[in-house]
Recover the amino acids of this structure.
């Protein structure tokens, strides 16, 4: 299994250098993460919550807003500086929504 190879590599690094405490801590973190992900694969999928629905709708709206602002730039109604400022704002909101 590919996950086991990464754990073996951690063990090898620990032996190669004097990083025993750091590598042991990272190994524990990595193994815990793999176990959590494997367990989550076995859980039934929960229906979308209201927050999930809001997030999906808002992400779709951001795409529409992005297309509209590009259209305004192509029409010459806004300049490149304004376009970049608006796109930055949209990017930040999108990143915030995706990390939830």
């Amino acid at each position: 299994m590919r996950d086991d190879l990464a754990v073996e590599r951690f063990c090898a690094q620990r032996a190669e250098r004097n990083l025993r405490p750091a590598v042991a801590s990272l190994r524990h973190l990595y193994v815990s993460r793999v176990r959590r992900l494997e367990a989550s694969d076995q859980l039934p999928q929960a229906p979308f919550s209201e927050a999930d629905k809001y997030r999906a709708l808002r992400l779709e709206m951001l795409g529409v807003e992005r297309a509209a602002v590009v259209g305004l730039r192509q029409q010459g109604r806004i300049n490149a500086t304004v376009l970049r400022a608006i796109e930055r704002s949209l990017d930040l909101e999108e990143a915030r929504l995706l990390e939830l």
Remarks:
- The radius of gyration is 22 Å.
- The chain has a mean pLDDT of 79.
- The helical segments are 2-16, 20-41, 50-74, 80-98.
- The CA atoms of residues 14 and 20 lie 5 Å apart.
